[in-house]
Amino acid sequence: MKRRIANFVGLLVVALAVFGCGTHLPSQGWIPLIDGNAGMENWNINGGGNWRAEDGSIQADKTTTKGASVLVSKRSFKNFELYVEFWAADDTNSGVYIRAPNPNTVNTASGAYEVQIWDKNPNPDYSTGSLVNVAKVKPIYKAGGKWNTYEILAKGPDITVKLNGVVTVTAQDSKSAEGRIGLQFNGGPIKFRKLLVKEL
Fold it and tell me: How far lies 125's CA from each of 12, 136, 138, 148, in Å?
């Protein structure tokens, strides 16, 4: 009897270790655009960032040009859920763009929405977890120095952002109904080890 209990407890510990960390990893109906080192073929590089597959993620930490570099999805998406696993340093300035209407110019000025990754933004209202120029974030969330998850729901004008399972912002905005996904590098190292999208 003691052996059965010990075996059960051992299996329970393993199950919690595998399934108990963070958000449940999506599987059915999801399209992987990044999966560890795999996925560079799903993206185009805008700007001079040294985007590459290395050490189980797609990452950038240097640039040959001024300004941001963006990894832009080759496909366009309208209504979707997005699951992202990312790592950023404390001083990293990055973000996840959605519904970027112009794949050659991906930024908020051209109509894209940016889910911010920037703990030290001089304007804390639009620091990590915010939807830049659309929905301010309160309280202030910190993502630097660890792996994090973003879950982003975009359905019609409704956009919801979750950071590590916690809703940081919700918004209604209709400036862009469809477009590309973009991953920004604008200083400080950034890594993406999972990015999955589910069309709705």
Answer: 41, 5, 7, 20
